Every structure is written in structure tokens, then in C-alpha cells.
Amino acid sequence: MLPYVYQVTKYDPADRDQHGHYIGAEPTTSDHGPVEAAYLQAIAAFAEDTDVEQLTIREPQIGCFVHFGLEPPVDGYGLADLFPAGPAEFHDGALVPIAAGLELVRAMLRDNGAWCRLETEGAFTVHVGWDQYLYIGSSHPCDAALTRTRSLGLFPECLDASPYDFAPDDPAYVQRPADADFWARLHWTVSAHHTTFLEETYAANASRWHRLTRDNIEAVRSRLAPRAQLAVWPDLLTDVAAAVAALPDEGLVEIIWEDEDGQITSTVADETQFEAVTSQLASASSAGVVSLTTDERHPLFTAVLPDSDGVLRARWQTEPTPSDRNWAFLKTLRRGQVVTGTVTSIASFGVTFVDIGGFTAMINVPELSWRPLNHPSDAVSVGQEITAEVLDVDMVRERVPLSLRAVQEDPWPQVAQRIGQVVTGPVTKIVPFGVFVRIEDREDGFKGLVHTSELDESPGDVLAVDDALTVKIIDVDLARRRIALSHVQTSATSTEGQLHA
User: Fold this and answer.
1) What are the backbone angles phi and psi of residue 494, rounded to the nearest 5°?
2) 110 by DSSP, 3-state: which?
3) Beta partners for 9?
4) Could you give the count of Cα atoms lying within 13 Å of 100 in the half-sphere of its Cβ?
5) Tell me: the pLDDT tens digits for 106-127?
6) What is the pTM of this model?
7) How does 19-30 read in b/e, with b if 16+ C-beta sit within 10 Å?
């Protein structure tokens, strides 16, 4: 916040009643003459006192849906001569010389339909407010500019802050940047959906639409306006007749259509304009309707473009989607982190899903336990609170695999200490190359393989499942989690370490 802030108006403070309401004769519309010129000269004087030669456009707005001004908006919003390459040059972060900044102020004073904050970070601000109120902030007291402003017939007043200082909608919300993770997810999304649409909002109420394919994502990316808001949509454009049928009975909507040449056009319209707009759809190859109501807009995910150095300096916020909330949560996780969650479901294919604070993570069967399982329900149950370790954080597919066994003591080193022991256990499975025998007296006990070379005879001839077999533990492969057993290396009288299962 700058230390010196002045409200500059054409309204004499003496022309106010006891409630502070203006009762003078000065009109609230610009006279497009001496008073307007005085405002611009005052701003120039403050800029000179602050030693500012350039201004930065912040939070630009174009063509509000509802016009509250007393003067009608003009074609081009007063920007045509300032940005001849098109309105997309009127973007957040654009640098303009003082002369161009004064012309932007003129357009705002005349309520031409465009608005922005003009700032030089840490040094200078110009905000145009309601009814021709001007707010100028500076890092200097600007005594000469104050004298000049009074001599121009204007009335400066010192304030603590400008009422038009930027204030975020939700200070706690972490805005998702269009960074490497965003573009990787976009590539993945396009591959999954085949065709995806990107909405590029370069100023409030002003956007462009792009059809994305795997071949053109980077080309579209290179043409985006700096600091634009981005919204990724699935198959937005549909059959034209279906799109027309989707128009509401009343209210504002955005109508988007694509012609046979691939040109995408969009316009905001209400029920009084639907007939005129739909007549333009006669030659459209596809069209769609998007609600302007926040609760009814459902893009897949959103982001804001950072600057070329990767820093997100744009201050506006997108409306967070479920994917954006997932992104914000995933940014708090790291591999190896221990988390607590609640088992929400166990899928028929064996994956266990766990709520870890609003995000659903998953545990694959091998990560549920060090011991063999017939089904995940042998280790966990729905509604159970568990503690697990994060194995990975996949920002592209928005997946977090967990491991329950990683926070449990690994019993395999203890099994390795039993090499040389002789035990008796049940045969659990017969295979062409041998038999498996459980070497612990528990249902989830470890099993080892007795290779045919370690059996007296062919296993199919003399053994059946559940038969007891005395074996010797001859090897434990910790890396591959395998136990090798031998029957031929045992003797009929061996009893040490026997297990009767």
C-alpha cells in the first residue's frame, strides 16, 4: 500500500449536505472539455512528481454485461487507437507510456465500457471510480502536483487508501498457474477426449475460444495473451440444432459456434437477442451454449498464465473446479509423506480407495500388507481409519497411490533369520514345477516353494492340497520376496522348529 493516496474530484466539498451527499450543479458525466483535460493534467503532474514514465495495466475489463454509466459505450471502448492490433493487447501486465495511460483514463472517465487499474509497482497508482472520482497513489507526497491540481480547479483530498485497491475474492484460495503440470495435464486430457476446447479470457468479459488437438496445442499456447485466464472444456461444441434447443427461456448465456473454415466465434446474448444470434448459426458446422452463472459453468479445470519467468503475477482468480481443488491439495503432498484417511470403498478389481482430506487416493493390493491376501477386505474395511505412506503424486492424472504396508514393520527380515529351520505346514498349491507350503501357523502365513528337485517324488502322485509336508527353509530372497524350501533335506526324525498346522 502506498503512503500517499489522494482522491481528486471536480466536486467542491462545500457542495455537500450534512450526510456527505453532493448537491452541487457539476454534472457527473464528463464534459469532454476543460474538466476532463484538468483531470489528465493532474495525473501527469503526479506522475512527474513520482518520476514515473510508464504504467502497467492491471485487471482489465471490457464491455460489462450491464452498463451503469450515464454515457453510452462507444465502439471499441475507446481502445481502438491505443491497441490497433486488437483488444487482446489490452491485457493484464501490459506496459503503456504515460500518454497512453492518460488516454485510458479518458476512456474510463467517459465510461466507454473499458476499465482497468493503472499502476507502477511500489510507486504509483491511478484508479478511476464512480461519478468521475479519481484516486491517485504515490510513494512521494507530490506537493507540486497537489498545488497544480488545485490550480486546475480540482479538489484533492488525502485518504488512507483507494477504495479501488485490488482485493482478492478469496484470500485463502491458491490460484492454479498454467505451468508445466497444467500443460502436461492438458495434453493428457486432449488425448483422452480427442478434442478439447480452451477458453482464453484475456480481460474480464472478453474471451477467445480455441479447438485443441494433439497437433496444435503448442501453436495455440504460443498465441495466448499474457496472464490470460484459461478454462479447459470437454466436447463443448455440439449439433447446431441441439445447441439452439439448449437456449434458456431467459437470461444471459454465451453462444459459441464454429464455421466450416474452423473459425470459432462467441457472443454474449439474452432472450431478446437469441433470434438474431441463431440466424447467424445457419452456416455453422457446430455450436454450443455456456451459462454465465458460476454454479452452471463446468469446465474440466482452469488456470492463469504466469509470466515468462514462471512467476504468477496476475491477481485475478478463476472459479475453482473439482480438478483445481485436487491440484491445490496435491501440491501439499510429497512422496514418502505419511497421511491419515478413511477407507471409502473397495473396488471389485481389488483397489482400495481412501479419502485423505477431500481427495480420493488408492491402495493397490500388494501395498495393503506384507503378507499374502485373498482379498483387500482381509486387511481393511470400509469406514476404517488408516495411516499410509504416499508412494507418488501424479499431477497429470491426479492420482496418489498409497502404501499401508510401508508404515508396518517388514516381517521378511525375520523370515530370513529362519534359514535352516525345519517346519511342517500344509500344501497350499500344486504346480508343474513343485508345491507351495505355508510355513507359519496363520491363515496369512508366508508360503515357500518346494521345487520338484527338492521333492522325493512327483508331487501330483503323492501330495494333495492341505496335506502336511515337512520342509527345510533353504533360502529367503528379500529382494524378490521368495522363499525356497526343501523336503529332501529334512529327516524323518527332525523335530526342531516344527510347525503342526
Assistant:
1) -70, 125
2) coil
3) 155
4) 20
5) 999 988 889 999 999 999 999 9
6) 0.82
7) eeeeeeeeeeeb
